[in-house]
Automatic annotation (TrEMBL):
Keyword Transmembrane helix: no
Protein name: Uroporphyrinogen decarboxylase (URO-D) domain-containing protein
Organism: Methanosarcina siciliae HI350
GO molecular function annotation: metal ion binding; methyltransferase activity; uroporphyrinogen decarboxylase activity
Reported cofactor(s): Zn(2+)
One of the Pfam families matching this protein, by short name: URO-D
Source organism phylogeny: Archaea, Methanobacteriati, Methanobacteriota, Stenosarchaea group, Methanomicrobia
Keywords on record: Metal-binding, Methanogenesis, Methyltransferase, Transferase, Zinc
Signal peptide residues on this chain, from the entry's feature table: none
GO biological process terms, semicolon-separated: methanogenesis; methylation; one-carbon metabolic process; porphyrin-containing compound biosynthetic process
Residue intervals of the Uroporphyrinogen decarboxylase (URO-D) domain: 8-338
Length: 343
C-alpha cells in the first residue's frame, strides 16, 4: 500500500478539499522533552542551531507519528529580532521576553531593513532549507511566529499595551502596523525558503485579554493584511482562549485555517462559522488538562469529541508542555485512525 503524502493532504485540506482522512499533527509549539531525548536534539541548542532545530522538528514525525513538522519551539523569535531582551531558557523552559525596547520610551521604532539577519531568524530559515531537503515533497513544513498583538506587547510590555488599547489607541495602531510588517517580511522569507504553512499565533488577541471591539478596531486591520501579502502561501491564525465572540472576525482576516484552543465554548458552532467562510479548523485537544495531565484514553475521548464537532485537522489546542508524555501524542494518531476506520 502506497504511503500517504501528508504534505499534499494538508495543503488540500487548507484549500477546502476533503482529505482521505483527517490529518493529525501540531500547528503550535512542540518542545517535548521525550522527543529531545529520542532525537538527540535538545533546547536551548535546538532553538538557535539550524541542524538541531531541524532534527527536533523531524522527530515529531519519526517518534510521534505526526504528519506535520512544526518549528521553531518558542514564540519570541521576532521579538528578539526587534530588540527585546530574551531569557534563552533551558531544556525544559521556553525562551521568553524579559523586556522590550519601548518600555523606556513610547516611540514606535522603524522596521529595520536588516530584520531577516537579526537574532535567530537566519537559524529558522536555514532549518527550513534543511527540513525541505530532508522531508522532500511528502511532509509539510509549518513555521510558527508571534502575531502582531503578541509582538507589540513584547516590545512595550503587556501592561502598557493593554492600557494603551484604551488610553492611547493611536500608538497601538502605529505599533500594530510595524509588527504586521515584520510578520509579513518574516513569513514571506519562510515560504521562500521552503515552508508550506505559516502560523500566526496571537494570545493577546484573545477575548480573555482584550475586548472583541478592541480586536476589531485595533488588531484585525493589520491581521487581515498578512494572508493577502503572502502571494498564495498558506497561512493559519491561532488565537488562544475563548475566542467564540471573534470567530467571524478571525475568518474575515482571510487565513486558510483557524487553530482553536480548548477554551472555545462551542467548538461545533465555531467550526460551522469557519466552514461557512471556507476556512479550515485545526484543534483542539486540551494541552494542559488532557495531553499533559491525562492518559491515552483521555486523549482519545477528547479527540473523538473534536472530530465529531467537525474539525479538519486533529491537533493540540495550544503549545505543548515540555513534559507532555509521548504516549499521549501517539494517542492522537490512534484516535484518528480509529475514528476514520469506523466512519
Amino acid at each position: 500500500m502506497e504511503k500517504p503524502n501528508f504534505r499534499t493532504e494538508i495543503l488540500r485540506t487548507l484549500e477546502g478539499k476533503t482529505p482521505a482522512q483527517i490529518p493529525v499533527g501540531t500547528f503550535t509549539t512542540a518542545p517535548v522533552l521525550e522527543l529531545m531525548d529520542l532525537s538527540g536534539a535538545a533546547r536551548p541548542e535546538a532553538d538557535s542551531q539550524p541542524e538541531k532545530m531541524a532534527l527536533l522538528a523531524f522527530s515529531q514525525y519519526v517518534n510521534a507519528s505526526f504528519e506535520t513538522l512544526r518549528y521553531p519551539f518558542d514564540m519570541v523569535v521576532l521579538g528578539e529580532a526587534l530588540g527585546c531582551t530574551i531569557d534563552p531558557g533551558t531544556k525544559a523552559k521556553t525562551p521568553a521576553v524579559l523586556n522590550g525596547p519601548m518600555e523606556l520610551s513610547p516611540a514606535v521604532p522603524e522596521l529595520p531593513g536588516d530584520l531577516l539577519e537579526r537574532g535567530r531568524i537566519s537559524a529558522v530559515l536555514k532549518a527550513t532549507e534543511i527540513l525541505r531537503e530532508k522531508a522532500g515533497s511528502t511532509l509539510p513544513l509549518i513555521v510558527g511566529m508571534e502575531g502582531p498583538a503578541d509582538l507589540a506587547s513584547s516590545l512595550c510590555g503587556i501592561t502598557r499595551f493593554l492600557k494603551w488599547t484604551i488610553k492611547r489607541p493611536h500608538i497601538i495602531t502605529r505599533l500594530i502596523d510595524l509588527c504586521t510588517d515584520a510578520c509579513i517580511m518574516y513569513a514571506r522569507e519562510c515560504l521562500k525558503s521552503g515552508a508550506d504553512v505559516v502560523v500566526i499565533a496571537d494570545a493577546v488577541s484573545s477575548p480573555d485579554m482584550i475586548s472583541p471591539e478592541a480586536f476589531r478596531t485595533l488588531i484585525k486591520p493589520g491581521m487581515a493584511r498578512i494572508p493577502k501579502a503572502l502571494g498564495g502561501g498558506k497561512s493559519v491564525l491561532h488565537i488562544c482562549g475563548a475566542a467564540d465572540p471573534i470567530i467571524t472576525d478571525m475568518t474575515e482576516c482571510g487565513f486558510d485555517g483557524l487553530s482553536l484552543e480548548e477554551g472555545i465554548k462551542d467548538l461545533k458552532s465555531a467550526v460551522n462559522t469557519a466552514h461557512e467562510a471556507g476556512t479550515a479548523v485545526i484543534g483542539s485537544v486540551s494541552t494542559s488538562r488532557t495531553l499533559f495531565r491525562g492518559g491515552p484514553e483521555d486523549v482519545k475521548k477528547e479527540a473523538f469529541t473534536c472530530m465529531e464537532s467537525g474539525v479538519d485537522f486533529l491537533a493540540p489546542g495550544c503549545g505543548l508542555a515540555p513534559e507532555t508524555p509521548l504516549r499521549n501524542l501517539k494517542a492522537l494518531v490512534e484516535a484518528r485512525n480509529e475514528f476514520c476506520g469506523r466512519k
